[in-house]
Amino acid sequence: MARGPAPVEIVLSDVEREQLESWARRRTSAAGLAMRSRIVLAAAEGGSNTEIAARLEQHRNTVARWRKRFLEARLDGLVDEPRSGRPRTVDDAAVEKLITETLENAPKADAHWSTRSMAAHLGMSQSTVSRVWRAFGLAPHKAETWKLSKDPLFTEKVRDVVGLYLDPPERAVVLCVDEKTQVQALDRTAPTFPMLPGTPERASHDYVRHGTSSLYAALDLATGKVIGSLHSRHRAVEFGKFLRKIDAEVPDDLEVHLVLDNASTHKTPAIKRWLAAHPRFVVHFTPTSSSWLNLVERWFAELTTKKLQRSAHRSVAALNADIRAWIKNWNEDPKPYVWTKTADEILDSIAHYCSRWRTSDSGH
Questions:
Q1: Most buried among 141, 259, 327, 353, using CB within 10 Å?
Q2: What are the chain's domains?
Q3: What does residue 131 show for φ and ψ, rounded to 5 degrees?
Protein backbone atom coordinates (compact mmCIF):
# COMPACT_ATOMS: atom_id res chain seq x y z
CA MET A 1 0.00 0.00 0.00
CA ALA A 2 1.43 3.39 -0.99
CA ARG A 3 2.22 5.83 1.78
CA GLY A 4 2.10 9.63 1.65
CA PRO A 5 5.19 11.76 1.94
CA ALA A 6 6.93 11.70 5.31
CA PRO A 7 6.08 14.71 7.49
CA VAL A 8 8.66 17.46 7.70
CA GLU A 9 10.87 17.06 10.78
CA ILE A 10 10.37 19.60 13.58
CA VAL A 11 13.44 20.69 15.56
CA LEU A 12 12.76 22.80 18.65
CA SER A 13 15.01 25.32 20.30
CA ASP A 14 15.34 25.22 24.10
CA VAL A 15 13.20 28.37 24.37
CA GLU A 16 10.48 26.92 22.15
CA ARG A 17 10.41 23.61 24.03
CA GLU A 18 10.16 25.38 27.39
CA GLN A 19 7.26 27.55 26.17
CA LEU A 20 5.43 24.61 24.59
CA GLU A 21 5.75 22.55 27.77
CA SER A 22 4.36 25.48 29.76
CA TRP A 23 1.39 25.83 27.41
CA ALA A 24 0.81 22.07 27.42
CA ARG A 25 0.16 22.15 31.17
CA ARG A 26 -2.87 24.42 30.70
CA ARG A 27 -6.14 22.71 31.51
CA THR A 28 -9.15 25.02 31.28
CA SER A 29 -8.18 28.61 30.48
CA ALA A 30 -6.43 27.67 27.21
CA ALA A 31 -7.23 24.03 26.55
CA GLY A 32 -6.97 24.50 22.76
CA LEU A 33 -3.50 26.00 23.02
CA ALA A 34 -2.47 23.17 25.35
CA MET A 35 -3.48 20.51 22.80
CA ARG A 36 -1.69 22.32 19.95
CA SER A 37 1.45 22.45 22.07
CA ARG A 38 1.21 18.72 22.82
CA ILE A 39 0.83 18.03 19.10
CA VAL A 40 4.01 19.98 18.26
CA LEU A 41 5.95 18.38 21.13
CA ALA A 42 4.89 14.94 19.92
CA ALA A 43 5.84 15.84 16.35
CA ALA A 44 9.29 16.92 17.53
CA GLU A 45 9.77 13.45 19.03
CA GLY A 46 9.09 11.86 15.63
CA GLY A 47 6.27 9.79 14.26
CA SER A 48 3.68 10.27 11.57
CA ASN A 49 0.61 12.47 11.81
CA THR A 50 -1.54 9.33 12.01
CA GLU A 51 0.45 7.95 14.97
CA ILE A 52 0.32 11.28 16.83
CA ALA A 53 -3.42 11.62 16.15
CA ALA A 54 -4.08 8.16 17.59
CA ARG A 55 -1.93 8.84 20.64
CA LEU A 56 -3.55 12.22 21.42
CA GLU A 57 -7.05 11.17 20.32
CA GLN A 58 -7.24 13.88 17.65
CA HIS A 59 -8.13 13.83 13.98
CA ARG A 60 -5.19 13.34 11.61
CA ASN A 61 -6.04 16.57 9.77
CA THR A 62 -5.88 18.48 13.07
CA VAL A 63 -2.36 17.19 13.71
CA ALA A 64 -1.28 18.03 10.17
CA ARG A 65 -2.72 21.55 10.38
CA TRP A 66 -0.90 22.53 13.59
CA ARG A 67 2.34 20.90 12.49
CA LYS A 68 2.15 23.05 9.33
CA ARG A 69 1.20 26.20 11.24
CA PHE A 70 4.18 25.74 13.56
CA LEU A 71 6.60 25.22 10.67
CA GLU A 72 5.30 28.40 9.03
CA ALA A 73 5.15 30.75 12.05
CA ARG A 74 6.74 28.81 14.93
CA LEU A 75 5.16 29.67 18.33
CA ASP A 76 3.10 32.53 16.92
CA GLY A 77 1.38 30.07 14.62
CA LEU A 78 -0.23 28.27 17.57
CA VAL A 79 -1.81 31.34 19.14
CA ASP A 80 -5.37 32.19 18.12
CA GLU A 81 -5.55 34.99 15.62
CA PRO A 82 -7.44 38.12 16.66
CA ARG A 83 -11.15 37.85 15.92
CA SER A 84 -13.56 40.56 14.97
CA GLY A 85 -15.65 41.83 17.86
CA ARG A 86 -16.22 44.66 20.24
CA PRO A 87 -13.01 46.63 20.89
CA ARG A 88 -11.63 47.02 24.43
CA THR A 89 -13.31 49.73 26.49
CA VAL A 90 -10.84 49.56 29.39
CA ASP A 91 -7.20 50.29 28.60
CA ASP A 92 -4.10 49.02 30.40
CA ALA A 93 -3.82 52.18 32.51
CA ALA A 94 -7.36 51.70 33.86
CA VAL A 95 -6.65 48.04 34.66
CA GLU A 96 -3.44 49.02 36.47
CA LYS A 97 -5.30 51.64 38.52
CA LEU A 98 -7.97 49.10 39.45
CA ILE A 99 -5.38 46.60 40.65
CA THR A 100 -3.44 49.27 42.55
CA GLU A 101 -6.56 50.53 44.31
CA THR A 102 -7.56 46.97 45.21
CA LEU A 103 -4.18 46.09 46.71
CA GLU A 104 -3.07 49.34 48.30
CA ASN A 105 -6.18 51.23 49.41
CA ALA A 106 -9.39 50.51 51.30
CA PRO A 107 -12.85 52.04 50.95
CA LYS A 108 -13.74 54.86 53.33
CA ALA A 109 -16.58 53.12 55.15
CA ASP A 110 -16.30 49.38 54.51
CA ALA A 111 -13.68 46.85 55.57
CA HIS A 112 -13.04 45.71 52.00
CA TRP A 113 -13.94 46.51 48.42
CA SER A 114 -16.94 45.01 46.65
CA THR A 115 -17.46 45.06 42.90
CA ARG A 116 -20.17 47.68 43.41
CA SER A 117 -18.09 50.01 45.61
CA MET A 118 -14.99 49.69 43.41
CA ALA A 119 -17.02 50.30 40.25
CA ALA A 120 -18.51 53.45 41.76
CA HIS A 121 -15.08 54.58 42.99
CA LEU A 122 -13.39 54.25 39.57
CA GLY A 123 -16.36 54.88 37.30
CA MET A 124 -16.30 51.36 35.83
CA SER A 125 -18.97 48.73 35.41
CA GLN A 126 -19.29 45.96 38.00
CA SER A 127 -18.75 43.35 35.33
CA THR A 128 -15.41 44.96 34.37
CA VAL A 129 -14.24 45.02 37.99
CA SER A 130 -15.31 41.39 38.47
CA ARG A 131 -13.62 40.28 35.24
CA VAL A 132 -10.30 41.96 36.11
CA TRP A 133 -10.33 40.62 39.66
CA ARG A 134 -10.88 37.07 38.39
CA ALA A 135 -8.12 37.45 35.81
CA PHE A 136 -5.61 38.54 38.47
CA GLY A 137 -6.81 36.21 41.22
CA LEU A 138 -8.05 38.99 43.50
CA ALA A 139 -10.88 38.33 45.97
CA PRO A 140 -11.26 41.22 48.47
CA HIS A 141 -14.26 39.55 50.11
CA LYS A 142 -12.17 36.57 51.21
CA ALA A 143 -9.89 36.45 54.24
CA GLU A 144 -7.98 33.69 56.00
CA THR A 145 -6.63 33.45 59.52
CA TRP A 146 -3.20 32.26 60.57
CA LYS A 147 -1.20 31.94 63.75
CA LEU A 148 2.54 31.68 64.13
CA SER A 149 3.82 29.48 66.92
CA LYS A 150 5.74 31.25 69.67
CA ASP A 151 7.30 28.01 70.90
CA PRO A 152 10.99 28.71 71.66
CA LEU A 153 11.78 25.17 70.47
CA PHE A 154 9.71 25.49 67.29
CA THR A 155 12.53 24.63 64.88
CA GLU A 156 13.76 21.68 66.93
CA LYS A 157 10.25 20.22 67.28
CA VAL A 158 9.48 20.61 63.59
CA ARG A 159 12.70 18.81 62.68
CA ASP A 160 11.95 16.06 65.20
CA VAL A 161 8.37 15.36 64.08
CA VAL A 162 9.00 15.74 60.34
CA GLY A 163 12.13 13.61 60.60
CA LEU A 164 10.00 10.94 62.26
CA TYR A 165 7.47 11.10 59.41
CA LEU A 166 10.03 10.95 56.61
CA ASP A 167 12.36 8.39 58.18
CA PRO A 168 10.54 6.35 60.85
CA PRO A 169 12.72 4.03 62.96
CA GLU A 170 12.82 0.30 62.34
CA ARG A 171 11.01 -2.11 64.65
CA ALA A 172 8.71 0.69 65.73
CA VAL A 173 5.22 2.03 65.16
CA VAL A 174 4.60 5.77 64.80
CA LEU A 175 1.22 6.92 66.11
CA CYS A 176 -0.22 10.41 65.69
CA VAL A 177 -2.36 10.92 68.78
CA ASP A 178 -4.90 13.57 69.75
CA GLU A 179 -8.38 14.09 71.19
CA LYS A 180 -11.47 15.39 69.45
CA THR A 181 -13.27 16.80 72.46
CA GLN A 182 -16.86 17.87 72.97
CA VAL A 183 -18.27 15.97 69.98
CA GLN A 184 -21.95 16.84 70.22
CA ALA A 185 -24.86 14.46 69.79
CA LEU A 186 -27.17 16.68 67.76
CA ASP A 187 -30.62 15.89 66.47
CA ARG A 188 -32.48 18.04 63.94
CA THR A 189 -35.77 19.57 65.07
CA ALA A 190 -37.52 18.28 61.93
CA PRO A 191 -37.08 15.30 59.63
CA THR A 192 -34.41 15.62 56.92
CA PHE A 193 -35.81 15.68 53.39
CA PRO A 194 -33.87 13.38 51.05
CA MET A 195 -32.17 14.50 47.85
CA LEU A 196 -34.30 14.64 44.70
CA PRO A 197 -33.39 15.37 41.07
CA GLY A 198 -32.59 19.08 41.00
CA THR A 199 -32.99 19.45 44.78
CA PRO A 200 -30.27 18.78 47.38
CA GLU A 201 -30.87 17.09 50.71
CA ARG A 202 -32.52 19.55 53.11
CA ALA A 203 -32.20 19.65 56.89
CA SER A 204 -33.51 22.15 59.43
CA HIS A 205 -30.90 24.69 60.53
CA ASP A 206 -31.72 24.30 64.23
CA TYR A 207 -31.08 21.26 66.40
CA VAL A 208 -31.39 19.79 69.88
CA ARG A 209 -28.30 18.88 71.95
CA HIS A 210 -28.22 15.48 73.63
CA GLY A 211 -24.80 15.56 75.29
CA THR A 212 -21.17 15.26 74.23
CA SER A 213 -18.45 12.67 73.85
CA SER A 214 -14.65 12.87 73.59
CA LEU A 215 -12.82 10.79 71.02
CA TYR A 216 -9.21 9.73 71.54
CA ALA A 217 -7.53 8.54 68.34
CA ALA A 218 -4.11 7.19 67.35
CA LEU A 219 -3.36 7.15 63.61
CA ASP A 220 -0.74 4.61 62.50
CA LEU A 221 1.62 6.49 60.16
CA ALA A 222 2.54 3.39 58.16
CA THR A 223 -0.82 1.66 57.71
CA GLY A 224 -3.37 4.44 58.20
CA LYS A 225 -5.27 2.32 60.74
CA VAL A 226 -6.78 4.07 63.75
CA ILE A 227 -7.02 3.03 67.39
CA GLY A 228 -9.98 4.86 68.89
CA SER A 229 -11.50 5.25 72.33
CA LEU A 230 -14.58 7.22 73.43
CA HIS A 231 -15.05 8.76 76.86
CA SER A 232 -17.57 11.04 78.52
CA ARG A 233 -14.85 13.28 79.95
CA HIS A 234 -11.53 14.72 78.82
CA ARG A 235 -8.92 14.41 81.57
CA ALA A 236 -5.52 12.91 82.19
CA VAL A 237 -7.35 9.87 83.61
CA GLU A 238 -8.98 9.18 80.24
CA PHE A 239 -5.74 9.82 78.40
CA GLY A 240 -4.01 7.30 80.65
CA LYS A 241 -6.66 4.71 79.81
CA PHE A 242 -6.07 5.37 76.13
CA LEU A 243 -2.31 4.89 76.55
CA ARG A 244 -2.99 1.53 78.18
CA LYS A 245 -5.23 0.58 75.25
CA ILE A 246 -2.44 1.46 72.80
CA ASP A 247 0.00 -0.58 74.90
CA ALA A 248 -2.32 -3.59 74.73
CA GLU A 249 -2.90 -3.37 70.95
CA VAL A 250 0.66 -2.73 69.74
CA PRO A 251 2.87 -5.86 69.71
CA ASP A 252 5.29 -5.97 72.65
CA ASP A 253 8.39 -6.19 70.45
CA LEU A 254 7.81 -2.77 68.85
CA GLU A 255 8.75 0.67 70.08
CA VAL A 256 5.86 3.14 70.17
CA HIS A 257 6.58 6.69 69.01
CA LEU A 258 3.75 9.09 69.88
CA VAL A 259 3.26 12.44 68.16
CA LEU A 260 1.36 14.63 70.66
CA ASP A 261 0.42 18.26 71.17
CA ASN A 262 1.20 20.22 74.33
CA ALA A 263 -2.14 19.74 76.13
CA SER A 264 -1.83 19.74 79.90
CA THR A 265 -3.48 16.30 80.10
CA HIS A 266 -0.47 14.87 78.26
CA LYS A 267 2.04 16.12 80.83
CA THR A 268 0.60 15.44 84.28
CA PRO A 269 2.78 13.69 86.88
CA ALA A 270 0.68 10.52 86.56
CA ILE A 271 1.19 10.41 82.79
CA LYS A 272 4.92 11.07 83.17
CA ARG A 273 5.19 8.23 85.68
CA TRP A 274 3.34 5.86 83.34
CA LEU A 275 5.61 6.76 80.42
CA ALA A 276 8.70 6.30 82.58
CA ALA A 277 7.44 2.83 83.54
CA HIS A 278 6.92 1.97 79.85
CA PRO A 279 10.22 2.91 78.19
CA ARG A 280 9.16 1.59 74.78
CA PHE A 281 6.93 4.68 74.51
CA VAL A 282 8.79 7.68 73.06
CA VAL A 283 6.98 11.03 72.97
CA HIS A 284 7.47 13.68 70.26
CA PHE A 285 5.70 16.96 71.04
CA THR A 286 4.56 19.25 68.23
CA PRO A 287 5.21 23.00 68.69
CA THR A 288 2.48 25.05 70.32
CA SER A 289 -0.22 26.32 67.91
CA SER A 290 0.90 23.79 65.31
CA SER A 291 -1.89 21.23 65.08
CA TRP A 292 -1.26 21.08 61.30
CA LEU A 293 1.87 19.06 62.11
CA ASN A 294 -0.13 16.19 63.62
CA LEU A 295 -1.51 13.94 60.88
CA VAL A 296 -4.38 12.66 63.01
CA GLU A 297 -5.95 16.12 62.59
CA ARG A 298 -6.35 15.29 58.91
CA TRP A 299 -8.22 12.14 59.88
CA PHE A 300 -10.43 14.08 62.31
CA ALA A 301 -11.34 16.40 59.41
CA GLU A 302 -12.45 13.42 57.32
CA LEU A 303 -14.54 12.07 60.18
CA THR A 304 -16.23 15.46 60.55
CA THR A 305 -16.95 16.14 56.89
CA LYS A 306 -17.86 12.61 55.85
CA LYS A 307 -19.86 11.57 58.90
CA LEU A 308 -20.57 13.97 61.73
CA GLN A 309 -21.62 17.12 59.88
CA ARG A 310 -24.71 15.57 58.32
CA SER A 311 -25.60 12.99 60.93
CA ALA A 312 -28.34 13.19 63.55
CA HIS A 313 -28.08 11.50 66.96
CA ARG A 314 -30.68 11.39 69.69
CA SER A 315 -28.25 10.24 72.37
CA VAL A 316 -24.55 10.03 73.18
CA ALA A 317 -24.80 6.26 72.91
CA ALA A 318 -26.05 6.59 69.32
CA LEU A 319 -23.26 9.05 68.54
CA ASN A 320 -20.61 6.73 69.97
CA ALA A 321 -21.99 3.74 68.07
CA ASP A 322 -21.85 5.73 64.82
CA ILE A 323 -18.23 6.80 65.42
CA ARG A 324 -17.15 3.26 66.31
CA ALA A 325 -18.80 1.94 63.14
CA TRP A 326 -17.05 4.62 61.06
CA ILE A 327 -13.65 3.72 62.58
CA LYS A 328 -14.29 0.02 61.94
CA ASN A 329 -15.17 0.74 58.33
CA TRP A 330 -12.09 2.97 57.93
CA ASN A 331 -9.79 0.24 59.29
CA GLU A 332 -11.13 -2.28 56.78
CA ASP A 333 -9.63 -0.14 53.99
CA PRO A 334 -7.24 2.35 55.66
CA LYS A 335 -5.60 5.12 53.69
CA PRO A 336 -2.32 6.34 55.18
CA TYR A 337 -1.41 9.99 54.72
CA VAL A 338 1.98 10.52 53.09
CA TRP A 339 4.06 13.42 54.41
CA THR A 340 6.24 14.91 51.65
CA LYS A 341 7.72 18.24 52.80
CA THR A 342 11.05 18.28 54.57
CA ALA A 343 11.66 20.33 57.69
CA ASP A 344 13.87 22.71 55.72
CA GLU A 345 11.10 23.30 53.16
CA ILE A 346 8.58 24.04 55.92
CA LEU A 347 10.91 26.40 57.78
CA ASP A 348 11.88 28.18 54.55
CA SER A 349 8.22 28.60 53.63
CA ILE A 350 7.39 30.10 57.04
CA ALA A 351 10.42 32.41 56.86
CA HIS A 352 9.38 33.56 53.38
CA TYR A 353 5.82 34.24 54.54
CA CYS A 354 7.03 36.21 57.55
CA SER A 355 9.41 38.17 55.32
CA ARG A 356 6.51 39.09 53.01
CA TRP A 357 4.43 40.16 56.00
CA ARG A 358 7.21 42.36 57.40
CA THR A 359 7.76 43.92 53.95
CA SER A 360 4.07 44.70 53.44
CA ASP A 361 3.75 46.00 57.00
CA SER A 362 6.79 48.28 56.82
CA GLY A 363 4.82 51.13 55.26
CA HIS A 364 2.28 51.31 58.10
A1: 259
A2: 14-78 (no CATH), 112-143 (no CATH), 154-189+205-343 (3.30.420.10)
A3: -65, -45
